[in-house]
Write a structure and sequence with these properties.
heterodimer, A: about 425 residues, alpha/beta, four-stranded parallel β-sheet, 16 helices, 14 strands, about 15% strand, B: about 150 residues, seven-stranded mixed β-sheet
């Protein structure tokens, strides 16, 4: 494709893609088949000007283009007080422009929970950090971490610079995190995976980590937890979990038959310290429990409903769960949406609890099962954080204060007591 | 005011600037760590928190890799509160794309250049710096900027 043959929109897009290729020393551009758009998440008028410029110049997506979360729900009221009306209007206007450009309006940070997405070895374009890691590490598709505007530009021209994680050589595991010696019962918990992701990110330092000792049947929700936590604490865009990651059936395959630069045996002390560092508050009464970062899956809702077991949320706190429209529709079919709302939960779609009016006006102690939420919240929101397992979050939501009932982390399980 | 011309290793985005330097000791995130409405560094953990980047030659090791970085730069340029230039130690696609989009949408000028560690070490906050990418013969053909 020569720049001269393109209309103005595609020429602008191709200029950006070519500039990126030059900076990445990519020898050529290759075809891409899927785009998850981050630039639909409004941050300022520049986002809207960029998308409108492309639309007015006649651009339209010809590959599958799905949308990330946005700062405001598009189908639920936003009663935030004192918020900027220009912000709300432009954030919503931006979503309409991307729909006109041909994007599929899924508005989720966990697009991998939806059917008909990318598959192994697909060359794709993703910017949302947890999704970059999940697609690379769990699905086995190939993407670099795309910044805003370049994501849309690559999607429009259906090409990406052949560099980094798009190449085989760029995906070689470099450091090893060994957890095989830890109790299997612990390694099978989702909470362990949140903490492991944080530890992995801290050690990664721009290297590609390889995890040894994760059970091969580790479920998608736990792999989501590792992806989100590793991307948050260390910008990890790809990890190999031996026996889980499609291209890493063995340690040797993950390392491309070379020696690792470093092998870290993850100790119980390291995990406990990482877990404790994610809580900024002591135990006590709660203002809120925040679930669904990244978006709560159907299977997480199933666990939540089972854990609640018909109980009501305590009157003095809010239980907020962010999810996609797709998953919200599934749980509505099962009657869970109604029963959860009757129990006192609030289900938030299209956005993240970070951006919800309730959270932004909250203060006090918030409990979450998400290491990603716990990692970012103290810097972004006027809240204190308690990080704990989903089991403890549900027990605490019913009690109105922090409960620690989950004994998977008690010393006896570590062989330490 | 006499301005010091600095030795440029590579051009990530072309342009001209003459402005006082603001040197950051750590990488900055333009999404979350920076307010594009007034050009202020917000990140509570950043050593230069509270500094205003507006109309300064912003020298920093790199950006922290948020997908929102290009949008943070473009929005700051739209509002006229962006830096006059950005001087980096490491190539950074997000910053280059932000400068290029701002140039296309708003006609703004934001040269982005790489320098050596030695040149970076010689930059001091407050010193007026001259950056003119038109004078640069790039040492890396892959990183040569087009005008």
């Amino acid at each position: 494709m020569q720049a001269g043959d393109l209309g103005p929109a595609l020429r602008f897009a191709m200029d950006l893609v070519v500039r990126a290729a030059e900076l990445l020393d990519a020898p050529r551009l290759i075809d891409a088949t899927f785009l998850h758009i981050d630039a639909c998440h409004y941050y300022g008028t520049a986002h809207l000007d960029f998308a409108n410029t492309l639309l007015n110049d006649g651009a339209r997506f010809e590959i599958a283009a799905w949308t990330n979360t946005v700062p405001v729900s598009l189908i639920q009221d936003d009663p935030r007080q004192g918020s900027d009306p220009v912000f709300l209007e432009e954030a919503r206007a931006l979503t309409r422009v991307y729909e006109k450009l041909g994007a599929r309006p899924v508005w989720t940070c966990a697009p991998y929970q939806l059917p008909d997405g990318p598959e192994r070895d697909d060359q794709i374009i993703v910017g949302e950090s947890n999704a970059v890691s999940y697609y690379n590490s769990v699905v086995g598709a190939r993407t670099n971490k795309y910044g805003d505007f370049l994501d849309v530009a690559c999607g429009l021209v259906q090409r990406v610079p052949f560099a980094g994680l798009h190449t085989h050589a760029g995906r070689r595991g470099e450091i090893v995190l060994d957890v095989a010696h830890l109790p299997e019962e612990l390694r099978r918990t989702e909470f362990f995976c949140h903490v492991l992701g944080i530890v992995m990110g801290r050690h990664a330092e721009n290297k590609i980590p390889v995890i040894v000792g994760l059970p091969p049947d580790t479920p998608p929700d736990s792999l989501k937890a590792i992806s989100a936590a590793g991307a948050s604490s260390g910008g990890v865009a790809l990890f190999h979990a031996v026996g889980v990651t499609p291209e890493a059936p063995t340690l040797a395959a993950a390392l491309h038959d070379r020696e690792p630069e470093m092998t870290i045996r993850v100790s119980p002390d390291t995990l406990i310290a990482a877990r404790d560092a994610l809580s900024t508050a002591r135990d006590g009464p709660l203002a809120m429990v925040a679930l669904g970062t990244p978006h709560f899956s159907y299977t997480e809702f199933a666990r939540l409903v089972a854990l609640l077991d018909g109980r009501k949320i305590h009157d003095n706190l809010a239980l907020m769960i962010s999810t996609s429209r797709h998953v919200a529709a599934l749980i509505e079919e099962h009657g869970w949406l109604t029963s959860l709302e009757a129990a006192g939960a609030t289900i938030l779609v299209d956005t993240c609890t970070y951006f919800s009016p309730t959270i932004r006006q909250a203060s006090g102690r918030v409990m979450t099962n998400s290491a990603k939420w716990a990692y970012y919240a103290p810097g972004m929101l006027p809240v204190e954080v308690v990080f704990a397992s989903l089991e403890d979050c549900v027990a605490s939501a019913c009690a109105g204060e922090v409960c620690r009932c989950d004994d998977a982390w008690s010393p006896s399980h570590w062989g330490l007591a | 005011m006499t301005a010091r011309s600095i030795d440029i290793e590579a051009v990530l985005h072309p342009g001209f600037a003459k402005a006082p330097a603001l040197k950051l000791s750590e990488a900055l995130s333009f999404w979350g760590g920076f307010d594009p409405r007034d050009g202020r560094i917000l990140d509570p953990a950043h050593p230069q928190r509270g500094e205003i980047v507006t109309n300064h030659v912003l020298a920093m090791p790199g950006s922290r890799g948020s997908a929102g970085t290009p949008a943070g730069i473009a929005e700051a340029m739209r509002r006229g509160v962006g830096p006059a230039a950005i001087v980096l130690l490491r190539p950074d696609v997000n910053i280059a794309i932000g400068a290029q989009v701002a140039s296309r949408l708003y006609g703004s000028e934001l040269p982005v250049v790489l320098v050596t560690k030695e040149t970076f070490a010689g930059l001091d906050t407050g010193t007026t710096v001259l950056i003119d990418t038109a004078t640069v013969v790039s040492r890396s053909p892959h990183r040569r900027a087009t005008s």
